[in-house]
Amino acid sequence: MVAEKTWKILIAGEGGQGVQSIGELLAEAAFQAGKEALYIPNFGVEQRGGVSIAFVQIAEGSIGAPKFQKADLVAVLSERAGERIKGYLRAGTIYLYDQSAFKPPVIDDRTVGIQGYETVAPEAFARMTGAEPGPPPRPPAADGVRLVGIPAAQVAKTELTNRVFNIIVLGAIVQLIQVLSPAQVEAAIEKKFGEKFRAKPELKTWNLQALAKGLELVAAPEPVRS
């Protein structure tokens, strides 16, 4: 008998890149699909945002420990974040990274000072700016890690808007794990951002287009067994 798969997912980036929104949306979509889901945020304490990390687990059955030592999939949105989470890699980990030749987004000065990071993500006080040219994050030289690079920041900047960069990454994750349907994720996006969509309808269009772009940018992997 094959054990039920628990997907252990780690998303890491700079404050301001929407890391925690990805984690929340994955967990909400899984919950609405009748699966077990657990999302734990982890924020840096540096004054200017720091590294923001989200731990997500999705399973058909019960989930054991709230955190995990090794990840089935990591999504890395900046080089500094990639350095921070190297210890979570193992042979077989899917390493999804943004390969765009852009620097991480600039963090707004409102992130300076004490902002209650234990309950509020740094990106709540940040704004996406710039996307100046720069080297993309370097993938790890770890044995057995499956590297998947996507031009998420480039696609967001040139085809949509910087504001949906993280939703492109979300779409890529959904395609790679193959446990949530696009419709389920769209419903989670609508639930989280519905009020903003009503105030600015084009935001909904951009978000759904970004999700579709992320789905298109990667090929689904072979099924993973525990």
Written as H for each helix and E for each strand, in order along the chain, the element string is: EHEEEHEEHHHH
Q: Provide mean pLDDT, rounded.
A: 80
Arrangement of strands in the largest sheet:
2-3-1-4-5-6
CATH architecture: 3-Layer(aba) Sandwich
Distance between the termini: 11 Å
Any descriptors?
single chain, 226 residues, alpha/beta, Pyruvate-ferredoxin Oxidoreductase, domain 3, 6-stranded mixed β-sheet, 6 helices, 6 strands, globular
Task: Please characterize this protein's 3D structure.
This protein has 226 residues and is an alpha/beta fold. It has a single domain, classed as 3-Layer(aba) Sandwich (Pyruvate-ferredoxin Oxidoreductase, domain 3), CATH 3.40.920.10. It has 6 helices and 6 strands; from the N terminus they run E-H-E-E-E-H-E-E-H-H-H-H. It has helices at 19-32, 79-84, 152-159, 165-177, 182-199, 201-217, and strands at residues 6-14, 36-43, 51-59, 73-76, 94-98, 146-150. A 6-stranded mixed β-sheet has the order 2-3-1-4-5-6. Helix 3 crosses helix 4 (165-177) and helix 5 (182-199) runs antiparallel to helix 6. It starts with 5 loop residues before the first strand and ends in a 9-residue tail after the last helix.
SSE topology sketch:
Elements: E1 6-14, H1 19-32, E2 36-43, E3 51-59, E4 73-76, H2 79-84, E5 94-98, E6 146-150, H3 152-159, H4 165-177, H5 182-199, H6 201-217
Helix pairs in contact: 1-4, 1-5, 3-4, 4-6, 5-6
Structure summarized in a few sentences:
This protein has 226 residues and is an alpha/beta fold.
